[in-house]
Amino acid sequence: MRRLPGDAKELASRPAVSVHKSAPILSAAEKIASHRVRGLVVIKGSGDALLEGILLATDLVNYLGGGDYFQIVENRHRDSIYSALRKEVVATIMNRHPIAVSVSDDLDTILRIMVGEGIGFLPVLYDDGTLHGVITERNILGRIADIPFDKKVGDYMTATIVGVDPEAPLKEAMRSMVTYGFRRLPVISSSTGEIKGVITAKDIVAYFGEHEAFKNAPSGKVSEAISIPVYMVMSPEVYTIDEKASVADAARRMLELGVDSLIVVDGGEAKGIITERDVLVASVVEGER
């Protein structure tokens, strides 16, 4: 079995972007937007850095219209965008019991946890419970990009593409993300089949965190803010890779472009999508052979 070098202390991103559980939801959205991170660590106080939970961009997508948390917005805040963002606090929707790793855990252990648990955001803790940093799939991608993989992108891609039309309401994209557990969706024209862009959970959180949502809700309702078409929030850049390319090629291309997924093509036709998670899965599977 292949062993990969590195441990959690070395791999972690520091300092982790943090928020207090009593902070308003809007503050969390602003931090995710300004730092372009996929999640925040929730810490107790400002000095001891004791972990109390995590809040991911997907949790905010759930709350703001994509999932069951939206009932809080509808029932408690009467769909008011101002009340829902400024009066509700992080503690309401944060994950209070996140999986974490120790600073001494090695890369193989971290990989197995991420792949086995289906998570991509791991707080890294010292033995006393204080926070050292966070590890995401991106931190690991750089370590495994130079490892030769015999397998091709087509072997590990997701062949079924769950997309959304550029003219569809933003709420539709949000619901698909929560329903299928995806952080990003290709934006595909239903009339031509052309891929127009990609929309991510971070794009949606940025829409609220950068206050654009307020401009699109003259009635002051969240439901109005998420009724705009997807194309107004999506990223128009579409990055591809051939299905016959190696998994290592995909990892390197993601790192070079600063993206977390690639559309897989064959002769110009979209065949699937490969993500950072898929690359990690390939690393675990191939490493055990």
TrEMBL record:
Classification via PANTHER family: CBS DOMAIN-CONTAINING PROTEIN, CBS DOMAIN-CONTAINING PROTEIN CBSX3, MITOCHONDRIAL
InterPro entries the record matches: CBS_dom, CBS_dom_sf, Diverse_CBS-Domain
Superkingdom per UniProt: Archaea
Residue stretches making up the CBS domain: 12-70, 94-151, 157-214, 234-289
Organism name: Aeropyrum pernix
Lineage: Archaea, Thermoproteota, Thermoprotei, Desulfurococcales, Desulfurococcaceae
Pfam families registered for this protein in UniProt: CBS (PF00571)
Gene3D superfamilies per record: CBS-domain
The entry's keywords: CBS domain
Protein name (database record): CBS domain-containing protein
